[in-house]
Design brief:
The chain has six helices and seven strands, in the order βαβββαββαβααα. By secondary structure, it is an alpha/beta fold.
């Protein structure tokens, strides 16, 4: 069985380590755990790894966050992966830092990366993992918060949170989405 796990983020060194790039960080963690490495490919960086008899195609789109749909569609078609075996990992302002929320489908929640994916795929029926980045910012400072670096407290917890997110995604591939949701939502 084959899965496409898409970490949303923006390419370029100026975005590394920012809250908005947590999707990239999560798929990097999966690749590290499973001894994978990313190669530059069409519309993104891709790593193909194996886990308990499953093939995981890890994708970091190079199209910038708000144009991620084209990369998702291309790799979905190229690898012949159905919609229900795609998982998109994204940041979420509405969740406290590090909190995970898995869903089988849903709205874009105001997230432009998800909005573009939904427009290109013409569906909201694909799994997603939202990683909370918190909303601790002043009025008019949302962009600074999202594109900002993690604070010291967040950085101190990051390894544990990335491990939990990785565990959740790998659990989807072996136990199924419903069980992973029951185990990891809110963690």
């Amino acid at each position: 069985m084959k899965y496409l796990i898409v970490g949303l983020g923006n390419p370029g060194s100026e975005y590394e380590g920012t809250r908005h790039n947590i999707g990239f960080d999560v798929v990097d963690t999966i690749a590290q755990r499973l001894d994978g490495s990313f190669e530059t490919a069409r519309l993104g960086e891709v790593s193909t790894v194996r886990f308990k008899g499953r093939t995981l195609v890890l994708l970091k789109p190079s199209t910038f966050m708000n144009l991620s749909g084209k990369a998702v569609r291309y790799w979905m078609d190229a690898e012949k992966i159905p919609l229900d075996r795609i998982v998109v990992v994204t940041d979420d302002l509405n969740l406290p830092f590090g909190t995970l929320r898995l869903r089988a489908k849903g709205s874009d929640g105001g997230h432009n990366g998800l909005k573009d994916i939904q427009a290109v795929l013409q569906s909201t029926k694909y799994p997603r993992l939202r990683f909370g980045i918190g909303a601790e910012f002043g009025k008019g400072k949302q962009v600074d918060h999202v594109l900002g670096s993690w604070d010291d407290d967040e950085r101190g917890e990051m390894e544990e949170r990335l491990t939990t997110a990785t565990d959740a995604l790998l659990n989807i591939t072996t136990a199924g989405l419903a069980r992973a949701m029951n185990t990891y939502n809110g963690k």
